[in-house]
Amino acid sequence: MRFFLDFTFFLNILTVVTIFGKETYIPDASLSVPKIIKRHGYPAETHIVDTKDGYLLEVHRIPYGKNAKQSKNFPVLLQHGIVASSADWIINGPSKALAYQLADQGYDVWLGNSRGNTYSRTHINRSPQNEEFWNFSFHEMGIYDMPATIDYILERTNRSQLNYIGHSMGTCIFFVMCSVLPEYNYKIRVQISLAPVAYIHHMTSTLNSLAPYANQIEKASNWISHGAFLPQNAASKLVNKYLCGEDASNSLLCKKYIVYKLFGEDSVQFDMSLLPIILGHNPAGTSVKTLMHFAQEIRTKNFQQFDHGKEENIKIYNCSHPPKYNLSNVIAPVAFYYAQNDIIADPKDVIELYSHLPNRLGLNLIEFDQFNHVDFLYSKNIIDMVYQSVLNTISTTEFEDWVPVFDNTTIYNAIDNIHCNDIELRERNSRKTNKGFWSKLTGYIKKKEVSPLVNIKEQHSEKTAESRNTYTKAWKELFNE
C-alpha cells in the first residue's frame, strides 16, 4: 500500500513539473544505439538474428575500438537486464561504459537485445499488437534468443567460443540456456555475471511489492497493451523530458521515486547526470509473462520453468508443477560480481545460486556498502570498482578453447529437467505405459539388480561403466541388435 501511495504522489508531482519544467536537449538520450556509438567515434554495425520460433532480434556490434590495429578480434557478448536494451552498455560514455572499454582493449563487442524490447519487436508473422507476440518469458529468451545470437556471432567471426557478460536478467537467461541446452556450455569461454539473478526470494525492491498483484497486472496489461510490459512510449519519454532533466529538484524526485525504490539507495556512486539518458532508453519493454515468471520465482523460492497451472503443466511437462532448472548442467566457467546494497540480486540469493554451479571462477563482492543494482552499469568509479577486475578475468582465460572431460553419462543430466515427483501422476503414467518399452527396460534393469544412472558427480568409474554396459545390453536385447 505504501508503494501505491508513493506512486500516486509521484504522478502528482509529475503533472506539476510537466507544466513548469524546462526542456534540455541531450543527444544520447534520443539517438539510437548505433548512432550513439558512431557519435563517440567508434565503428557500429547492426545485425538481425532470427530465432527458431520466428522472432527477429537486432544485435549491435562494435568490431574494434579507436585503435583498430591492436584488435584481438575475440568476440564478447553483452546481454542486458529486464526491460532494458543494448543501450545499457554504452550509456556511461567512452571513458566508463563496458562496451567501449572492451572495444578499446581489442575485443569484438556484440550487444544483444532480447525479444520484445525496443530493438527486437519484430516477428515473421506476428504483430506486437497481437497477444500471441508477447507469449514468452525469460525461458524463451534462454532457449531461443541466446542460442540463436551465439550461433550467429560464432559463425560471423569464425570462432568456436565467445566470452559472455550478463547483467541481471542477462545472467538468468544464460543459466536457462546452459541448463536446458548443455551443449552451449562448450561455446562459452568464460561467463561474467554482474548482479546475477535466478533465485530472487530475498529481493526487497519495490518490484517485490508487485509480485502478489502479478495476476491483476497481467489482466490489466493484456487489456491495455496486449501483453507488453513497460514498452518505450510517450509516457516514459514524458518522465524523461519533464521530471528527470538537469534541474536539481527534478533529480531529487527521480532519485527517490525511480532509482532508490527500484534498485537501492546510493547517493555517492550513482551518476544522476546520466538519468535523462538512462530514461531516454529505459524502460525498453518486455512481456507481462516475463514479469509473471519472476513473480512465480519469488513465491516458490525456486529457479524453475513457467507455471501454467496444474492442467497445462501436465500437458506441457507431464507433471502438475514446473520442473526446476538443472544448474548442475551449467559447466561453463562462471565468475560472479555482486553488491551488498543490491535489493534485486540480494547477496543471500546470489550465494545460493553460486553454490549450485560446478565450474566457479570467483565470487566477488563489491567493496562499497552503497553499491546497488544499476551501479554495475552507471557508477562513477565503475572501472576501478568492477570493470578492471572483469577485464582481468577475461584476459586470464585467453587460452585454447576448453573441453571439459566427462563420460557419456553427462547426457543423462539433461533428463533431470523433466523429472516429476507427483506420486499420483507417476502411477497414472505407469499404468498407461505398463506394456511399453520403458516398462520392459526398467524390468530388465531391476532383474539384473543394477541401479539406474545418477548424477555424474556421485558415480565411481566402475559403477558408471557397469550401468552403461547394462543399458547398452538391454537396448540390444529388446531390439534384437
UniProtKB/TrEMBL annotation:
Keywords, comma-separated and alphabetical: Aminopeptidase, Glycoprotein, Hydrolase, Lipid degradation, Lipid metabolism, Protease, Signal
Example GO biological process: lipid catabolic process
Residues of the signal peptide: 1-21
Transmembrane stretches, start-end: none
Serine aminopeptidase S33 domain sequence ranges: 96-214
GO MF entry, a single one: aminopeptidase activity
Pfam families reported for this sequence: Abhydro_lipase, Hydrolase_4
Domain Partial AB-hydrolase lipase: 33-93
Family designation: Belongs to the AB hydrolase superfamily. Lipase family.
UniProt-recorded name of the protein: Partial AB-hydrolase lipase domain,Serine aminopeptidase, S33,Alpha/Beta hydrolase fold
Protein species of origin: Cinara cedri
